[in-house]
UniProtKB/TrEMBL annotation:
Residues 6-275 form the TauD/TfdA-like domain. Keywords: Dioxygenase, Iron, Metal-binding, Oxidoreductase. GO terms for molecular function: metal ion binding; taurine dioxygenase activity. GO terms for biological process: sulfur compound metabolic process. Pfam families: TauD. Belongs to the TfdA dioxygenase family. It comes from Verticiella sediminum. This is TauD/TfdA family dioxygenase. InterPro entries: AtsK-like (IPR051323), TauD-like_sf (IPR042098), TauD/TfdA-like (IPR003819). One of its GO terms (cellular component) is cytoplasm. The keyword S-adenosyl-L-methionine does not apply.
Length: 298
C-alpha cells in the first residue's frame, strides 16, 4: 500500500478516503493507516460502499473491539447484534423509536463508564434531500479557549445522563425503565485527553451533559450554555450531505455530532451503525427521581 489518498471535507475536520473497497479484506498496514487518519481527522468518509451488514461488522472489527449489548440493544439488527438500526421505517407496525435519534449535539455513549471510541454509520436508504449530519471538532473547541478558561475547566467534571434526552422519554416505558437501570448517570472530565493522540478535547454536549460537579446550579447552567454554543460554532463544523452507501466513521473522543431533521418524513432514512468500544472513563453518580411517561401521555 503506497499510503491512503485523502481529500479534506472541511476546514475544521474530516477527510474522504479514496480508492478503498470495503467489500474486500484490508491488510494490516492499510487498517493501521485508516486508524491513524481517523484519530487525526476526526471524521472519515468512504463513498459508494455497497457492503453487506456482515462486511460492515468485519471492517469495524478490524479497527478494534465492537460494542455489543449496551443499553440500546433493543434496537439492534435481528441478525447482527453489533448493528444499531437508526430508521424511520415502521417497526412491528409502529413508528420506529430510533427515528429521531441524535437530534441534539452529542458524543455516543458518553453517559457510560466506557464511552464509544468510534462510530461507523452506513447509509442504506436516504431521503432525496436533507437528513444531514453535522460534526464539530472538540480538539479545536478546546484550543480556541483562552489559557485562563482552559486552566479553569481542566479540573472540572460534568454529569452525563441518558435520561436527559427528550427522545428517550417518549419511548415505551418498560424499555426505558430497563435502559435507565443499565445506565446510571456518569461524571466525565470536562477536558479529556485522547488516549491515542495525547491531545486535549472538550467533552460536554447538550444531549446528555446535565450539570457541572462542584458548581452551583446557576454557575453550572451558565458555563454549560457557553460551552455548548462555543463547541457548535459554525467555524468548527463539517456538514455531511448523505449519499446512499456512504460509510462515515467518526472519533467520539474528539468530535460531537447532530442529526438534522431537515427532510421529508414520508421518505425513508434507514442507517446501520456499529460502535467501537472505548477506554474506561468517568464514575457513576446518583440520579434523582425519574417519572416515566405512560403510553397515552407519550
Amino acid at each position: 500500500m503506497m499510503g491512503l489518498t485523502l481529500r479534506p471535507l472541511s476546514f475544521a475536520l474530516g477527510a474522504e478516503v479514496l480508492g478503498i473497497d470495503l467489500r474486500e479484506p484490508l491488510d494490516a498496514a492499510t487498517v493501521d493507516e485508516i486508524r491513524q487518519a481517523w484519530t487525526r481527522e476526526g471524521v472519515l468518509l468512504f463513498r459508494e460502499q455497497d457492503i453487506t451488514p456482515a462486511q460492515h461488522v468485519a471492517f469495524t472489527r478490524a479497527l478494534g473491539e465492537v460494542e455489543v449489548g449496551n443499553a440500546l440493544s433493543h434496537y439492534n439488527h435481528p441478525d447482527h447484534p453489533e448493528i444499531f438500526v437508526v430508521t424511520n421505517h415502521l417497526v412491528n407496525g409502529k413508528p420506529s423509536e430510533t427515528r429521531d435519534t441524535g437530534r441534539k449535539w452529542h458524543s455516543d455513549l458518553s453517559y457510560t463508564t466506557r464511552p464509544a471510541a468510534g462510530s461507523l454509520l452506513h447509509a442504506q436508504e436516504i431521503p432525496r434531500v436533507g437528513g444531514d449530519t453535522l460534526f464539530a471538532n472538540m480538539y479545536r473547541a478546546y484550543d480556541m479557549l483562552s489559557p485562563a478558561m482552559q486552566a479553569f475547566l481542566e479540573p472540572l467534571w460534568a454529569v452525563h445522563d441518558f435520561w436527559n434526552s427528550s427522545d428517550i422519554k417518549k419511548r415505551e416505558p418498560q424499555v426505558v425503565a430497563e435502559m435507565l437501570r443499565r445506565t446510571p448517570p456518569v461524571a466525565q472530565p470536562v477536558v479529556r485527553v485522547h488516549p491515542d493522540t495525547g491531545r486535549k478535547a472538550l467533552y460536554v454536549h447538550e444531549l446528555s451533559t446535565v450539570r457541572m460537579l462542584d458548581l452551583g446550579e446557576g454557575e453550572s447552567d451558565a458555563l454549560l450554555k457557553f460551552l455548548f454554543a462555543h463547541c457548535a460554532d459554525p467555524e468548527n463544523q463539517y456538514r455531511h450531505q448523505w449519499r446512499r452507501h456512504d460509510l462515515l466513521m467518526w472519533d467520539n473522543r474528539c468530535t460531537m455530532h447532530i442529526a438534522l431533521p431537515n427532510y421529508d418524513r414520508s421518505e425513508g432514512r434507514h442507517m446501520f451503525r456499529t460502535t467501537l468500544v472505548g477506554t474506561p472513563s468517568g464514575r457513576v453518580v446518583e440520579r434523582g427521581p425519574v417519572h416515566l411517561l405512560t403510553p397515552q401521555a407519550a
